[in-house]
Description:
- The chain is α+β, with helices and mostly antiparallel strands.
- It has helices at residues 24-33, 71-78, 109-123; strands at 8-10, 37-42, 48-53, 56-58, 61-67, 81-86, 94-106, 130-132, 136-139, 142-149, 153-159, 164-169.
- It is built from three helices and twelve strands; from the N terminus they run E-H-E-E-E-E-H-E-E-H-E-E-E-E-E.
Amino acid sequence: MEAESPEGSIDPRYSSPGARAADWSAARERVARAELFWLSTVRPDGRPHVTPLIAVWYEGALHFSTGVEERKAHNLAANPEVVLTTGTNTWAEGYDVVIEGTAVRVREPGRLRALARAWEEKYGPVWHFEVHEDGGFQALHGMAEVYAVAPRTAFGFGKGETFSQTRWRFPAG
């Protein structure tokens, strides 16, 4: 269930004169439609790690998966704080969204089945998953853990004729 939309605040230091805060519902729709995200995690020794991946928006959180032996899975075991970024790779057009939050492992079979359907609906049959008995997705090379990131803070960056930086803060919990 989606929480109420937080009110955004514009940062005039990084926005064009007269820019207005964007509406979270519009940013959330951009996130839901986005095909590619960049996940930033921190290695156990403190060094950053960034990798592209696909994700789905479902019930108020952005969800991604990772193989249990992948670098990001090891990073998340040590520190679940993440940043997910999506947008356009251009300077003067488009819109970028950054979501900060805690990655929480999803294990409940019913929710995993719903997420598997959401992945396939969004990305097609090449991304068909079965739910693994240990609480994840059965992937080509073994089990993949699934994580949910409910936004704690999000930023929207408008580009083009009017540049803007909107910040949304979400209630805890």
